[in-house]
Amino acid sequence: xxxxxxxxxxxxxxxxxxxxxxxxxxxxxxxxxxxxxxxxxxxxxxxxxxxxxxxxxxxxxxxxxxxxxxxxxxxxxxxxxxxxxxxxxxxxxxxxxxxxxxxxxxxxxxxxxxxxxxxxxxxxxxxxxxxxxxxxxxxxxxxxxxxxxxxxxxxxxxxxxxxxxxxxxxxxxxxxxxxxxxxxxxxxxxxxxxxxxxxxxxxxxxxxxxxxxxxxxxxxxxxxxxxxxxxxxxxxxxxxxxxxxxxxxxxxxxxxxxxxxxxxxxxxxxxxxxxxxxxxxxxxxxxxxxxxxxxxxxxxxxxxxxxxxxxxxxxxxxxxxxxxxxxxxxxxxxxxxxxxxxxxxxxxxxxxxxxxxxxxxxxxxxxxxxxxxxxxxxxxxxxxxxxxxxxxxxxxxxxxxxxxxxxxxxxxxxxxxxxxxxxxxxxx
Length: 428
Known about the structure:
The protein is an alpha+beta fold.
């Protein structure tokens, strides 16, 4: 069959890399893609929010299966738009409609959803510009630290953890009055800070049946030892040593099953990925957030561990036949280290030549923000490459990923040198 992936990041390169290995895949396209996806697929110069151009490409390329990578087109309703096109009635789509994507598109919606269905989460309260004064007073009596979340999409940067009441109040003013995150911050969810250790669980559902994919832990802060501002993700590890069988069973019983039951009860036919961001607190799972798609860079450690034909999995998801599938997972550990542009997550330059990629051995370099031009691979984003290594131990996977991260060169390259190191200590 002919497959189109929407997106241009490391997640989409990982999808393309995995799908290209399937005998079911005849022709593979990525829109708009990057220099990495061009190695395994044909890039189409179409923005992933250009719905009419995407619809035209689906017809022109005789696409059988569409996989939507990023959250933005899902939240904006690309699935609803394509479902309304009569000439695309046979198209298989992996990705929720706009109603389902609200799990990620609105922090307030997802919080209310969790409360309705008894899903464990931190206590919270939502404020708008009209209730700013009430919000400032509320913060004055709130235990520290305080978590503030922009309600809408903010490219992974809409969460602020304030250590003092003054910082929290200033942040609330900046978000509601100062429009720090634009429309995404027109509502702010103020949340209890949970003390524990974080991980992510990924669910693939066809609307009724589901499969739980390998779990992962990502590293959000720019600096080592989790310091500095949040980013889209600086690295990831799978499996997660502290997520034993008993804990993952709790996640399935207390989070996954009630989430899917809640979606069905609300009449949402959700066909796609649900990313569940969790905090393990005293052995119990608490939901920090939902995403309506796979995580990035977690995809770059989850997909390499899945041995099942990925195209077959995607077809079963779109056809409502996931109950017929078995997911086989490699016991190896995967570690990815993300190389980012100098200045990220603030201002950064692009167009830097990337060298030494050809020297990498026994690792996979997933391209995130790259561009091929005049025979050179150039930086084209904040997160540039995710270097994934697999090994029989966490220590060896960390070492291989870090060695490869040192090998690749571009002007201003930054990366964290402690991805997975905390888990080595945890395992000891």
